[in-house]
TrEMBL record:
SUPFAM superfamilies to which the protein is assigned, alphabetical: Lysozyme-like, PGBD-like
CDD domains: Slt35-like
Organism from which the protein derives: Roseibium salinum
Domain Transglycosylase SLT: 44-347
Pfam family, one: SLT_2
Domain of life: Bacteria
The protein, known as: Lytic murein transglycosylase
Signal peptide span: 1-36
Domain Peptidoglycan binding-like: 367-408
């Protein structure tokens, strides 16, 4: 019998299911094209009734509108979509980088891979970086660290058609009004001629080019530093670096100050004192027993300047004294872990060493669970900065205050 195995009692049901599946698959495959185009008519109506009038009001010519929106269809494969008009159930949010053990986010292998490239670019563009620093006051190591984090110095694949992404997000994403504005901004960029439509690539969230600017940020902060007449953040390394520096300068970068310092924070200083609204002179922290992990003193020019405690993982991770410039980095991406990654990478271009403090094992959670915790803390009278499911400094210190109120040593972290 050709060596076929004997059928066991459970084989027949399995075979029946397989046969049914084989019969259904062709029908499913045939239905896919129709499903992919099911929103096309509604999408075209959305463009005609909402986007085109907004674009005209913003000064976008009819020729640009016709050229860039003709034949456009939504990309329903993008993650996070909820349905036309932004109405529908939000997608389930699973573990976020801010909730996971930070050791994963800050693993040494990432920094060891990025440091050599940054050092090479510092040498390659030494003169240009000097000119960028002179104009904007932002250190080259900070510029390169953001460039590394956003696109791996331009090596990351950024494959999406920016206009299609923005139009899809405006039509059926979670923030339709926001992305409608970004779509209009993208049309203005194309009208200005800085980039062609085929070269205007973005991430699935609409962030464009090597510094990952949204279109509105491009219009405000992108610069032509190489003098070719175009603000090119897609293929020009010089324009990319200068645009990052301009962004940080415009958001308040303080020339001459660093982003922050890793420190030993004694147990006599409660983690509930974290936050930029609890700034004091760094010299005052020194008198309270705060020391740099390197054993070196704080620079003299920093001692009379303000700083604040930063504990991205509460007492479960390294401690820092942050300056105002740390929060300028957060203006680029509203995340403590992002800003700390950038600052730490910038430091490692000089001395490639990891944090002195350990990221201890901690309880992982989800955004929904954090939101529930924030709502409970709010009912108890704590200011968590809004129940958004993100563990910012107000949530961390509220956790710590609740711990202290109940007689525990404050860790300022979940669990």
């Amino acid at each position: 019998m050709l060596g076929l195995p004997a059928l066991t009692p459970w084989s027949l049901p399995v075979i029946r299911r397989l046969v049914c599946l084989l019969l259904v698959l062709p029908a499913l495959a045939a239905a896919l094209p129709a499903a992919a185009g099911q929103y096309d008519a509604q999408f075209r109506q959305f463009l005609n009734s909402e986007v085109i009038p907004a674009a005209r009001a913003a000064g976008v010519s009819q020729a640009t509108i016709d050229r860039e929106l003709a034949g456009l269809a939504p990309d329903t494969s993008l993650p996070g979509l909820v349905g036309p008009g932004g109405r529908g159930k939000s997608p389930e949010v699973n573990f976020q980088a801010e909730f996971r053990t930070p050791a994963r986010y800050f693993r040494d292998s990432q920094f060891n891979a990025l440091v050599p490239g940054g050092r090479r670019l510092m040498q390659k563009h030494a003169g240009t970086l000097g000119a960028i620093e002179a104009r904007y006051g932002v250190p080259r190591r900070i510029i390169l660290a953001i460039w590394a984090r956003e696109s791996g110095y331009g090596g990351a694949k950024i494959p999406y058609d920016a206009v299609r992404v923005l139009a899809t997000q405006a039509f059926m994403g979670q923030r339709p009004d926001f992305f409608k504005g970004e779509l209009v901004a993208a049309l203005k960029i194309l009208q200005n001629g800085d980039v062609s439509r085929s070269a205007m690539k973005s991430s699935w969230g609409g962030a464009m080019g090597q510094p990952q600017f949204l279109p509105s940020s491009f219009l405000k902060y992108a610069v032509d530093f190489d003098g070719d007449g175009k603000r090119n953040i897609w293929t020009s390394e010089v324009d990319t670096m200068a645009s990052i520096a301009h962004y940080l300068s415009a958001h308040g970068w303080l020339t001459g100050r660093d982003w922050g310092y890793e420190v030993h924070l004694p147990n006599t200083i409660s983690c509930t004192r974290e936050g930029p609204d609890n700034r004091q002179k760094i010299s005052t922290f020194v008198r309270e027993g705060v020391k740099r992990v390197s054993g070196k003193p704080f620079p003299d020019h920093e001692l009379n300047q303000p700083g604040n405690i930063l504990l991205p993982a509460g007492r479960y991770g390294p401690a820092f004294i942050a300056t105002e410039n740390f929060y300028v980095l957060k203006a680029y991406n509203e995340s403590d872990t992002y800003a700390l990654f950038v600052g730490h990478l910038a430091d490692r271009y000089g001395n490639n060493q990891g944090f002195a403090g350990d990221w201890k094992p901690m309880k992982e959670t989800t955004r929904g669970a954090v939101r529930n915790l924030q709502e409970r803390l709010q009912r108890l009278g704590h200011d968590v900065g809004g129940a958004d499911g993100l563990i910012g400094f107000k949530t961390r210190r509220s956790i710590g205050k609740d711990q202290e109120k109940n007689g525990f040593f404050a860790t300022c972290w979940v669990g």
